[in-house]
């Protein structure tokens, strides 16, 4: 038992979170588990769980995928070995079945042949692929100003989306879904709407919770062997003795 507790404490003390823990975190969050429950399941403090959730605004991140046609780590290692042998770009490209321009762009991103490292190049490619795409509010200043103004006077995202549907025709450029508004507020990487507008939302939360993330029906804060107040003795119910008035 002491060994298990020591291992758990050691895990809590380590910075960062493994990919496996992150996957389990998002699965449990999607099932509606609380931050405390998730923390206990993956042996992490609630603050660490919240930090991961807040970074994505409470939205489950899309799975990482390589863009079709992009170089793989194995190919980048071949590029690195070819450069070490001082092969030409055309020779490396021919061996990999790639165009010389593809190899040239790959090497050019990393300050030339001498600085090129396959693992670093692959890691940077993954990070570029994770950059968020511009959302509707980021591309349309008129719509962004309207939404910001409505949020500033405490209109909900649902009310704003409904108002726009009612007063603007499809294709007018003045329509936006409530989820787009939420993501523009909560997903930190987007930075489209001012973060101080979050306080105008009805929930007041810094992260978005879906319909499954609720404590309704969950057994929490129960008193062990609790006795209903209906079962109190008659002399207590009569409140004839001093001290029986508390909590009445």
Give a written overview of the molecule.
The chain is mainly alpha-helical and 248 residues long. It has 3 domains: 2-55, Arc Repressor Mutant, subunit A, CATH 1.10.10; 73-129; 134-248, no CATH class. It contains 13 helices and no strands. The chain has helices at 2-13, 19-31, 35-42, 46-55, 73-84, 89-96, 100-108, 118-129, 136-139, 141-152, 157-167, 178-186, 234-238. Helix 5 runs antiparallel to helix 6 (89-96), helix 5 (73-84) packs antiparallel against helix 8 and helix 6 (89-96) packs across helix 7. The two termini are 45 Å apart.
List the helices and strands in order: HHHHHHHHHHHHH
Class derived from helix and strand content = mainly alpha
Through-space gap between termini: 45 Å
Average pLDDT value? 76
Number of domains: 3
Number of helices: 13
Task: Summarize this entry quickly.
The protein is mainly α and about 250 residues long. It has helices at about 1-15, 20-30, 35-40, 45-55, 75-85, 90-95, 100-110, 120-130, 135-140, 140-150, 155-165, 180-185, 235-240.
């Amino acid at each position: 038992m002491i060994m298990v507790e020591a291992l758990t404490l050691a895990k809590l003390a380590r910075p960062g979170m493994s990919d496996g823990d992150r996957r389990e975190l998002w699965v449990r969050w999607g099932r509606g588990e609380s931050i405390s429950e998730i923390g206990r399941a993956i042996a992490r403090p609630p603050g660490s769980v919240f930090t991961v959730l807040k970074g994505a605004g409470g939205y489950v991140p899309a799975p990482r995928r390589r863009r079709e046609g992009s170089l793989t780590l194995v190919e980048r290692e071949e590029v690195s070995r070819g450069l070490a042998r001082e092969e030409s770009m055309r020779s490396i490209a021919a061996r990999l079945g790639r165009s010389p321009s593809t190899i040239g762009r790959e090497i050019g991103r990393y300050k030339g042949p001498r600085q090129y490292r396959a693992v670093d190049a692959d890691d940077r490619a993954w990070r570029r692929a994770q950059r968020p795409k511009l959302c509707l509010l980021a591309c349309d200043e008129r719509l962004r100003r309207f939404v910001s103004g409505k949020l500033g006077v405490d209109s909900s995202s649902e009310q704003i989306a409904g108002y726009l549907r009612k007063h603007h025709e499809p294709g007018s450029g003045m329509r936006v879904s409530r989820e787009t508004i939420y993501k523009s507020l909560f997903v930190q990487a987007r930075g489209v709407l001012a973060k101080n507008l979050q306080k105008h939302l009805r929930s007041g939360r810094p992260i978005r919770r879906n319909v499954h993330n609720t404590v309704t029906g969950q057994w929490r804060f129960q008193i062990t062997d609790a006795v209903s107040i209906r079962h109190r003795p008659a002399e207590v119910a009569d409140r004839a003795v001093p001290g029986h008035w508390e909590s009445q």
